[in-house]
Amino acid sequence: MTEFRDALGNIIEINDNPERIVSLSPSVTETLFEYGLGNKIVGVSAFCKRPAETDNIRKVGSYGTARIEVLDEIKPDIVMMMSGYAEPLYKKIRERYNTFLFKLPTTVFGILEMIKEVGIVTSRQDKAKELELDMVKSLSKVRRYSMKGYLEIDLGGPVTFGSQSYITDSLTLFGLTLPYEMKQREWMVPKDEEIVEFDPDILIYEGKMYRGSSNEEAEKIFTNRGYANTSFMRNKNIFVTPGKLDFFAHHGPSFFREVIPWLRDTLDSVSLKN
């Protein structure tokens, strides 16, 4: 057993090689698979979809809920969770089970730190170093652009992000100026009139998880909300994230393998048009 201090400062004892892991964080689940621990995972959240093998693992709950009776049946050695929205659930679960809370990343480098920490608490330090190096290499694809951007995600309604979000950090690393990048918030519901006045050069839109969207759908949504005369509408600079799963909203290793290259290629295409 080794002692670790989690995101809330609680000291947690964890077996050096935990055999029965429950992960209620999609990013942690993806990282555990990267470390070859997929066969040790006995429970996940309904939103854990990476890799595809997670479909065969028992569903224990979601971001903010868990079925305690299933946990009682599974009897995990450790439950792993992410700070933020799930903290009330974390406090409830840790009354019955050994539970470790990872810090929700606020920067791109915070994602790297989380990935490395998952390796440390599961005694996979060597694999964590290799994965960290792989992720750092992907950051060499970052280029600087000079344009105004706006990113929105459908999380049951329009949501955008402020200075406390790794999403904002990723966009500003590429040189984008954002309407709420100085706002001391992680996320917020945007005000359409403020975005229209900001007049972004480019729109990045992530549709609802499991449904996704298309450029045509996004154009219709924003036209109906009064964006018809913005620069991104006039110049057809509307970019919908690929696939039906969360994209920017997911902060596992695939953020470096998929999101960073896609963002670079997208901004390259806009830059070439100009």
Question: How does this structure look, described?
Answer:
- By secondary structure, the protein is α/β, with parallel strands linked by helices.
- The chain is elongated, with a radius of gyration of 20 Å.
- 36% of the residues lie in helices and 19% in strands.
- The protein has helices spanning 26-34, 68-74, 87-93, 108-121, 125-138, 166-173, 192-198, 215-224, 231-234, 254-273; strands spanning 2-5, 11-14, 21-23, 41-45, 59-61, 78-82, 99-102, 147-154, 158-161, 176-177, 187-188, 202-206, 238-240.
- The relative contact order is 0.12.
- The protein has two domains: 2-106, Nitrogenase molybdenum iron protein domain (Rossmann fold, 3-Layer(aba) Sandwich); 142-273, Rossmann fold, CATH 3.40.50.
- The longest helix has 20 residues, at 254-273.
- The model has no long low-confidence stretch (mean pLDDT 95).
- Strands 8, 9, 10, 11, 12 and 13 form a six-stranded mixed beta sheet that branches. Strands 5-4-3-6-7 form a five-stranded parallel beta sheet, with helices on both faces. A two-stranded antiparallel ribbon has the order 1-2.
- It is built from ten helices and 13 strands.
- Helix 1 links the parallel strand 3 and strand 4.
